[in-house]
Amino acid sequence: MVTAQQTASAPDAARPFPKGFLWGSATASYQIEGAAAEDGRTPSIWDTYARTPGRVRNGDTGDIATDHYHRWREDVALMAELGLGAYRFSLAWPRIQPTGRGPAVQKGLDFYRRLVDDLLEKGIQPVATLYHWDLPQELEDAGGWPERATAERFAEYAALAADALGDRVKTWTTLNEPWCSAFLGYGSGVHAPGRTDPVAALRAAHHLNLGHGLAVQALRDRIRADAQCSVTLNIHHVRPLTGSDADADAVRRIDALANRVYTGPMLQGAYPEDLLKDTAGLTDWSFVRDGDLAQIHQPLDFLGVNYYSPTVVSEADGSGTHNSDGHGNSTHSPWPGADKVAFHQPPGETTAMGWAVDPTGLYDLLRRLSADFPKLPLVITENGAAFDDYADPSGNVNDTARIAYVRGHLAAVHRAIVDGSDVRGYFLWSLLDNFEWAHGYGKRFGAVYVDYPTGTRIPKASARWYSEVARTGILPGA
Questions:
Q1: SS3 of 120, please?
Q2: Does the CA dihedral 220-225-227-228 come out positive or negative?
Q3: 241 vs 345: CA distance, rounded Å
Q4: CA-CA distance, 207 to 148, in Å (whole number)?
Q5: 430: Cα within 13 Å, side-chain hemisphere
Q6: For residue 10, what pLDDT is reported?
Q7: pLDDT for 387
Q8: Where does the pLDDT of residue 318 fall: very low under 50, low under 70, confident under 90, or very high at 90 and above?
Q9: Phi/psi of residue 458, nearest 5 degrees
């Protein structure tokens, strides 16, 4: 543990992280793999969504993405060159189990076997995420996440992945950001599958929870005794616009919908009563069956935390809308039962996504999670920023704004550790520029620049800077 004495110097002094702190980077299958119709892979909901006119900027798709499916050796070599200790990637469900049912496709599993073996050979810890939003389209056609059967199919898929990779992958994550899957996918429609039904969004949230619990059980039955299970949540750090009681209640409502709808059943074994009351006008939650909460509430080895920017809310008074929540524009809200809540743009500097740059939100979030769940270690599984990067005439990408962003957020993580939070690692989002969902290829989050026409990879200045941090375990002063 870092001691307070080590950080008692000036704020811009170098900050050492604890011994064994895990430094990595992260990606997602649909965003980088490409090879959308190769070796048995069938369409996911994101293939269908991206091919629907008007859904994705410029009509971009993940058909090729960064062609990681064919260039994975080059990408692993880049990770090794950068000195990363871990790589968080996701398995593509439709590549492993194309219809979402039945036996696995061995060519799909072989791709991940080769990837994992190369990572291990180069001393990079593989961190496998089972689901990063690419549901097989056939399962969506059968009802998708609003249906209980999808949770059951997810557990079967988890078993297939664990049988193939459980002897070599020691860290597993069930779901990435289930809030986005449920509320952006089925509520506002700005993510796949693009449905706009608030009750379906709440049903999806429950069945994602159930799928998580069933998958943890399937993993535990198959993976190594020393392996770890986790889930990654995009916990919203929600702040009130003013100090009024009405704005405090707006925070409570959004905290229930954004955070406690998952942390309640997953970590405490119950849905929050205020969430059920707030949404009672939409549903009686009868889709929650006896025994579901016990199935969901499985022991975890750590909680994955994704953070980019805080969320500012108030009682609705005409000064803000649900479109100001940073998740994309839609005439439909991703916040069922919160019609009287307005969202506001936080003040200050923003990234190319329009998201406020505010490391204090990450510090506050980590301290809250440590207070709420004091025995559960935390890992920052995503943190990063999109900027308008370009390669200069000499072929360099000097992304100084990203370096400043990451430095500020790592300083917040370090401060949280010093103040008692058990944070075990940090994964920079993202390793590569890639397909950024509804934004297509218009937003660049990568530490490595990708020239999309050629696929050429160019490590940015931030990649070299982060490499030094990862190698030394020391955050340099400003």
A1: helix
A2: positive
A3: 10
A4: 6
A5: 22
A6: 52
A7: 98
A8: low
A9: -130, 105
Reduced DSSP (H G I as helix, E B as strand, rest coil) percent helix, strand, coil of the chain, to 5: 40, 15, 40
- What local confidence, expressed as pLDDT, does residue 5 receive? 36
pLDDT digits (tens, 9 = 90+) for 361-391: 999 999 999 999 999 999 999 999 999 999 9
Of 349, 382, 436, 468, the catalytic one is 382
- Measured CA to CA, the distance from residue 403 to residue 387 in angstroms comes to 11
Burial class of residue 248 (count of CB atoms within 10 Å of its CB; 0-12, 13-18, 19+)? middle
Contact yes or no for 446/457 (Cβ under 8 A)? no
DSSP readout, 263-321? Answer: HIIIIISS--HHHHHHTTTT---TTS-TTHHHHH----SEEEEE-S--EEEEE-SSS-B
> Catalytic: 81?
no
Decide: helix, strand or coil at residue 65. coil
Q: What is the pLDDT of residue 9?
A: 40
Question: For residues 65 and 42, what is the distance between their CA atoms, to the nearest angstrom?
Answer: 16
**Which of 136, 133, 76, 139 has its CA nearest to residue 105?**
136
**Is the pLDDT assigned to residue 102 strictly greater than 80?**
yes
Q: Is the peptide bond before 430 cis (omega within 30 degrees of 0)?
A: yes
CA proximity to 261, closest of 320, 207, 330, 186: 207
Closest-CA residue to 60 (of 30, 90, 89): 30
Q: What are phi and psi of 386, to 5 degrees?
A: -95, 135
Burial class (CB in 10 A: 0-12, 13-18, 19+), 394: exposed
Length of the chain counted residue by residue: 478
pTM of the model: 0.97
Longest CA–CA separation in the chain, Å: 63
Structure tokens at 171: 């860290």
Over the chain, what is the mean pLDDT? Answer: 96
Report whether pLDDT(392) > 70.
Answer: yes
**Which has the closest alpha carbon to 399: 410, 388, 412?**
388
Taking 50 as the threshold, does the pLDDT of residue 4 lie above it? no
Q: Read off the pLDDT of residues 146-193 as tens digits, 9 standing for 90 and up.
A: 999 999 999 999 999 999 999 999 999 999 999 999 999 999 999 999
Q: Which residue type does 18 have?
A: P
CA separation for the pair 338, 252 (Å, rounded): 10
Whether the predicted pLDDT of 14 surpasses 80? yes
- Assign 8 a pLDDT band (cuts: 50, 70, 90): very low
User: Token pair 């790589």 is at which residue?
Assistant: 87
